[in-house]
Amino acid sequence: MDLNALGRLIVIIGLSLVVLGIVLIVVSRVPLFRYLGHLPGDIRIEGENVSCYFPLVSMLLISILLSLALNIILRLLNR
């Protein structure tokens, strides 16, 4: 890999991180996403020195929403 290609790769990775940061800032302000992680069915175990958190229902909801969105996008692209 020559330096020109490496430079382009670093710029692309940097721009991707900036876009990801902006998306995370915007998503954190959407009220729907504030409830993720605090839904009924998310398991939180706290002891004296240990705490464990298993967001089962939140991950299930995210999985369903992403599967639905990807399915719709793929159906629209295959027309």
Detail the poorly predicted runs: none
Question: Biggest β-sheet: count, sense, barrel?
Answer: 2 strands, antiparallel
User: How would you state the average pLDDT, rounded?
Assistant: 89
**Large-scale geometry:** extended
Helicity, as a percent range: 55-70%
- Cα-based radius of gyration, to the nearest Å: 19 Å
Strand order of the largest sheet: 1-2
Which structural class is indicated by helix and strand composition?
mainly alpha
Count of individual helical segments: 3
Order of helices and strands: HHEEH
Extended strand count:
2
Which properties best describe this structure?
79 residues, mainly alpha, two-stranded antiparallel sheet, 3 helices
